[in-house]
Amino acid sequence: MGLVEQAAFDIKPPRASMKDMVTSGYFIIGEEFIHKNGKTAILADDSGKLTYNGHTSSMHEIAGEMEDKNIQVNGFDAFSVRRNGNLVSTADVRKEYRNKEIQ
After folding, report:
1. pLDDT single digits (tens) 30-40
2. Which of these, 7, 35, 64, 85, could form a disulfide with 39 (CB 3.0-4.6 Å)?
3. Residue 33's beta-bridge partner residues?
């Protein structure tokens, strides 16, 4: 039986919440989240919300706001953070968290 028959493509990765990643130290309160368009937001608190232009909300809503959209967009695709002087996508940080912290 092949992957299609096994529905392998329908298996979703385990959920990794911003709150859990902040609690585990993968993101740090006060850390800059740099949007792919260069705009920055700050990780506001341990719930994982970001602050941008005085507005605090989910990373997905903030990413949409930074793109001048009235909808949420996938913040993990939009943001990067600095790690050892290099920009690392938040999607890669989430992947690392899943690999190390979620069995």
Report:
1. 999 999 999 99
2. 35
3. 41
